[in-house]
Design goal:
The chain starts with a helix and ends with a helix. The chain has helices at about 5-20, 30-35, 40-50, 75-85, 110-125, 130-140; strands spanning about 55-60, 65. The protein is elongated, with a radius of gyration of 18 Å. The protein contains six helices and two strands, in the order H-H-H-E-E-H-H-H. The chain has about 140 residues and is mostly helical. It is about 50% helix and about 5% strand.
Length: about 140
Amino acid sequence: MKISTKGRYALRLMIDLATYNIGEPISIKDISKRQEISEKYLEQIISILNKAGYVRSVRGAQGGYLLTKEPKDYTVGMILRLTEGDLAPVSCVNAREDVCDKRDTCVTIRIWQQINDAIGNVVDNITLEDLIEWKEDIADQYVI
């Protein structure tokens, strides 16, 4: 499994919205400058997040986007599954796929299931709030 730029940039976009949240909409242009990601690509990603209800769009001259929930209510897993789809390393451990005919006799299924569980345990237990705290810890290390 490899996370695409869409998934990575969606996380960065959501972290940016959470970090710079002062109750006013944040423009894609501002996020684009801070994150050094093209506006066009961010517009594609924000559309996905908006349709899923993760962000809210505010129109007008002072428009932009706001998170619909608190940063603690978004997990990395939620964001990555929205943009990447299932994170399972193989289709036979994907809950949405048909079960493999060889599942009951497959010696490798345990490996794939353990990898899938490990991925889930990481991404489903890290929130945007955690990422913001980590970001602040990194920034504190470089303050003179």
